[in-house]
Design brief:
This protein has 89 residues and is mainly α. Helices cover 55% and strands 9% of the residues. A two-stranded antiparallel sheet has the order 1-2. This is ATOZI1.
Amino acid sequence: MLISMRGTSSNMATGKIIGAVVASFAVAYACDVLIAEKKIFGGTTPKTVSDEWWEATDKKFQAWPRTAGPPVVMNPISRQNFIVKSSES
């Protein structure tokens, strides 16, 4: 009878711990929404978080020319890089 009581006590403690963790996540989410989205303390969203900023940044990075050097093989033991020569030259 003592063994079964220990098992029940452990299961109850596990349930309380899981419930407390879930409840803390719910409270944290609610606070995040109230403060960041609903702006209960006032303020505005910075321009760097807006969609138009992301679009302009993405457009800028896509416009850069893509350049690359010759293929390189790394020797992991000596940590030296060697340029791979093509067999044609």
